[in-house]
Amino acid sequence: MRHLLSAEGLDLAAATAVLDTADSLKQALLGREVRKLPTLRGRTVVTMFYENSTRTRVSFEVAGKWMSADVVNVSASGSSVGKGESLRDTALTLSAVGADCVIVRHPASGAAHRLAGWLDGTGTCVVNAGDGTHEHPTQALLDAATLRDRLGELAGRRVAIVGDVLHSRVARSNVHLLTTLGAEVVLVAPPTLLPVGVDTWPVTVSHHLDAELPSLDAVMLLRVQAERMHGGFFPSAKEYSLAYGLNQARLRLLPEHAVVLHPGPMLRGMEIASAVADSPRAAITDQVRNGVHVRMAVLYHLLAGEEAVA
């Protein structure tokens, strides 16, 4: 298959190959006045986003352009989707006009897999840029790349994922990828924000952030996804912050080498204090930078490499 649909579908060799390629591409661009590589010249990459996005959409566009691909952006509001066209017909239209790769974000879990099924045999590959509450594989890859930059190899490292795990595709993809890379993952959240069946995941579950902080190599804060919540999942934003927000006092409980991550957008003052987000311990801007190189690597493996990523 020539698609990247989930982090769960990446084995150790494939994940490491993408991360190593991202490192090589980063080095290849260092010192260049014009950040352009000819690798994907003549290829057409289409981004098709049915949900709002800043980091993912822009970094995919920059990644494609830095590799000399032609990048076309399609928004649901400005396309025939607004006239009632189905996802299937939109995908087949994009393939028919010559898209070599379709990067899709969709509010329905499984949408990217359906798209890939419809496009198998057409020569168009699909990248999942986030589907509902299911997965966001390139976010997990860029998080892993950032942790490798700061910590070295991830085998044996202990990483906490904190907050709204229930609604987070980022959490699911990171659990799959980090455990594949040999890290130990602990989920820290109130019981109401943990999914059913979490006891079958290869993770440790905790409800007490302070108790976990001293033994961590990295802590990843998740955005509280109020737009996906129907009902009360915690008493108030203030109480959530008191129990699960990373403030300066909690930052001091972390080992000196520990890294702070957040996939963005951040709810400053709730999930993370501004002083923590802007501190040298935080690698949040590095995540965004690495996102471009990781997405370049994904496009390389799908469109220029000898083998598909997944």
From TrEMBL:
Protein name as catalogued: Aspartate carbamoyltransferase
Keyword Cell inner membrane attributed: no
Binding residues annotated for L-aspartate, in chain numbering: K83, R169, R223
SUPFAM superfamilies registered for this protein in UniProt: Aspartate/ornithine carbamoyltransferase
Family to which this protein belongs: Belongs to the aspartate/ornithine carbamoyltransferase superfamily. ATCase family.
Binding residues for carbamoyl phosphate: R55, T56, R105, H136, Q139, G264, P265
Classification via HAMAP family: Asp_carb_tr
Aspartate/ornithine carbamoyltransferase carbamoyl-P binding domain segment(s): 2-148
